[in-house]
Amino acid sequence: MKSTFHIQRNTQTHWVGDGFPVRTLFSYQDDPALFSPFLMLEHAGPTAFEPTAERRGVGAHPHRGFETVTIVLDGEVSHRDSTGALGSVGPGDVQWMTAGAGIVHEEFHSEAFARSGGPFHMVQLWVNLPARDKMTAPGYQSIGVAQIPTVPLPDGAGTLRLIAGSWLGAQGPARTFTPIQVGDVRLQAGHSVTLPVLDGHTALALVLQGRVKTADGAQADASELIGWRREGAGVMLGAVTDARVLWLAGEPIDEPVLGHGPFVMNSQAQIRQALADYQSGRMGRLD
Length: 287
Known about the structure:
The chain is mainly beta. The chain is built from 3 helices and 26 strands. A hairpin with a 2-residue loop joins β15 (166-167) and β16.
């Protein structure tokens, strides 16, 4: 069993564009080896927006060298990118975008959500790509709520929506480049679950709602991140109150991480090339 090594807290909110008030739990500017294969995790909300006729969100911007995973809990986000992919993700949906060799995209509140306003809550995760796949063709996976299997947890502890990876005979729909688990866990107060993670793999849990505790007595509240040591297999998570948790586990990528804004590569030369390719339009454009 893995032991807890830290609880990550960030009470500072900053805006991404004018549509996403986020708290960054970690980024590649921290110790990237600590969280590998994950590069960044941002928790947006929960908050509420008033109705508006304006577009709220982030305009066209590039990425290269990793994947972005957007998990919507409340509200609705519309996406458009330079490959021609477009669509909206609402409560329970997931958008899994592979930037790979380069992509330009925009993210705004959907027109319907902007008109109605209401509660807004989402998470965005950046997942690193190994060097062999940094320049893979960009791609887009639109994963609807109906595609995500819900696995009952043992002893009536709750449920796990499996977005990526496998457990208890279920397979998450997301296609990944390295072994990763991503799950949306709901735990009943007073119950606990042992979640699967291999010895040597990274294990993280972002509390979305409620309060949880670990086997060694650490407790975390909403918008706090639990990290476990890599030694040992499996982690225990208990619910002090009814709770919802984003579960992340994966095989570390033991390679250099060099990032510059929306580009994450393995060398400064590759970062310079990414800047040149974006500025020249070789990553595509949004019309």
